[in-house]
Write a structure and sequence with these properties.
Keywords: Signal. Residues 1-29 form the signal peptide. The protein is of the alpha+beta class. It has a domain at 315-461. The chain is built from 21 helices and 13 strands. The chain has helices spanning 5-16, 174-182, 192-198, 203-211, 219-227, 232-240, 248-256, 261-269, 277-285, 290-298, 306-314, 319-327, 335-343, 348-355, 364-372, 377-385, 393-401, 406-414, 424-430, 435-443, 451-461, and strands at residues 23-26, 31-36, 39-40, 45-46, 75-76, 80-81, 85-90, 97-105, 108-114, 123-129, 142-148, 151-160, 163-172. The strands form four sheets. A six-stranded antiparallel β-sheet has the order 10-9-8-13-12-11. Strand 9 (108-114) and strand 10 (123-129) form a beta hairpin. The longest helix has 12 residues, at 5-16.
């Protein structure tokens, strides 16, 4: 049987997922192998920069300096790359007899096995070498068979040109079954014999595994290893690459992902030595290779933690993204801040918008807060145009959190209140002292050149 497509199927499934990588594929209708390396590079930037700022205002105190303490806490959830979970189950109905339908194509013959009654609904197809069937009945009904270590399938039917059909029955080789049980393989069930046959399990393969330390192996894992052609050279190659205590499940996962000693050695050459097996699987599943790592090294971004690299790849963070930040003055940015920037879509273009209006050297956390609150260069420039220069980032955040716009300041200016201290604006807005309120009080006969008086009146009425 041709199982060459199995690793490709695993890789396709694993690479298709963005966060949780889980793949299920079948060697045949009875053997289902699930590889779940549990790679969950879910990045959540927890940004809590702002709550409505309600400054304490005491009308007895002339100086109003509202306490504004906004420190955005940016955290990135740890990347969950758990142990490799490989589950191989022999499932499905009894397939030891039924109907067959075959198609010859080149030097291969594809045989589909189907249920023999309307009460059961199952099918399974497999590719065999045409050379395994030297006496196919052509033009008339006949019998032919295929014998392997695990047993024999006897086919009845006929072929017309390259198409054939009929019935079949599988008979297990009791001697082989007894050998499997005596060799240390555990959890052997009667119907496993057909799975052994379909993956062409041989005594020599079982002996090889035992010689390499895999004697007490479960039947379903044995089927998976045989189907995926986990051979001696692969086992020894992985061990020579530093994984001397490799487990059965890790071997299956590595083989399914086409992880080779060369791949492992390439990672080591880039500084990633002794990487845990489950992280190697995660690297491969995310297509993290030496070239990807080298791109970061080439711009001076080195020694990136393993889980940060997984996050980078999952979020499509490239060396070009980091270089853009470097060019804007953000050098040696920690990996978790890079992840926060990307998750918030903070790019070099976003930063350049602020530098173009002369607002430079914004702290990293303030940038994240700006983006989370949709603070734009236009917002800041509006206050600059109102005469406020060199505004601290925390004041910008306070203004935005209270929805204080330049038009708010302009409203007071039209009433004759110029040069309002910046830290007085949150106090005015949070206490409900607006240009409209001041205008209404003036119409009622209360006129003052101090906005603080209006705050005191507003509080006294409240």
């Amino acid at each position: 049987m041709n199982n060459s497509t199995i690793p490709a199927l695993f890789r396709k499934c694993l690479l298709a997922a963005g966060s949780l990588l889980l793949c299920t594929t079948s060697v045949n209708a009875q053997v289902v192998t699930t590889v779940a390396p549990l790679v969950s590079p879910v990045v959540t930037a927890v940004i809590a920069p702002v709550h409505p700022v309600i400054p304490p205002v005491n009308p007895v105190i002339a100086d109003i300096s509202p306490a504004i303490n906004i420190d955005p806490q940016v955290s990135v959830d740890d990347i969950d790359v758990g142990d490799i979970d490989v589950d191989v189950n022999v499932i499905g109905p009894d397939m030891t007899e039924g109907k067959w339908f075959a198609t010859i194509k080149g030097d291969k013959i594809r045989i589909e096995f189907r249920a023999d009654s309307d009460d059961n609904h199952w099918s399974n197809d497999a590719d065999f070498a045409l050379s395994e069937f030297p006496n196919l009945p052509k033009g008339q009904k006949g019998e032919f068979s295929l014998t392997r270590d695990a047993g024999t399938i006897v086919f009845n039917g006929k072929f017309d040109d390259d198409m054939g059909f009929g019935t079949y029955k599988f008979s297990a080789n009791k001697a082989f079954d007894d050998y499997i049980k005596s060799s240390g393989v555990t959890d052997v069930k009667d119907r496993d014999a057909f799975s052994f046959f379909m993956v062409d399990l041989k005594k020599s393969y079982v002996d090889m595994l035992a010689k390499n330390g895999f004697k007490d192996i479960k039947s379903h894992n044995l089927v998976a290893m045989s189907a995926m052609k986990v051979d001696e050279s692969f086992i020894q190659g992985i061990r020579s690459a530093g994984y001397s205590d490799i487990s059965v499940h890790q071997l299956i996962a590595m083989k399914s992902m086409n992880i080779t000693p060369a791949y492992i050695n390439e990672l080591a050459a880039m500084g990633y030595k002794d990487v845990p097996a489950h992280d190697v699987v995660a690297f491969k599943s995310m297509n993290i290779d030496a070239a990807y790592i080298k791109g970061f090294n080439d711009i001076g971004y080195t020694n990136t933690p393993i889980h940060s690299l997984i996050s980078f790849k999952s979020m499509d963070i490239t060396p070009e993204f980091i270089k853009g930040l470097n060019d804007m003055g953000y050098k040696d940015v920690a990996a978790h801040d890079i992840i926060s920037f990307k998750s918030m879509n903070i790019t070099a273009a976003y930063i350049k918008g602020f530098t173009d209006i002369g607002y430079t050297n914004i702290p990293i956390r303030s940038l994240v807060a700006f983006k989370s609150m949709e603070v734009t260069p236009a917002f800041i420039k509006g206050f600059m145009d109102m005469g406020y220069k060199d505004i601290d980032a925390h004041n910008i955040i306070a203004l935005k959190s209270l929805d204080i716009k330049p038009s708010f300041v302009d409203g007071f200016k039209k009433l004759g209140f110029t040069d309002i201290p910046l830290n007085e604006l949150p106090a005015l807005k949070s206490n409900g002292v607006t240009p409209e309120y001041v205008a209404s009080m003036q119409q009622k006969g209360f006129k003052s050149t101090s906005l603080r008086k209006y705050i005191q009146i507003k509080n006294s009425f409240n």
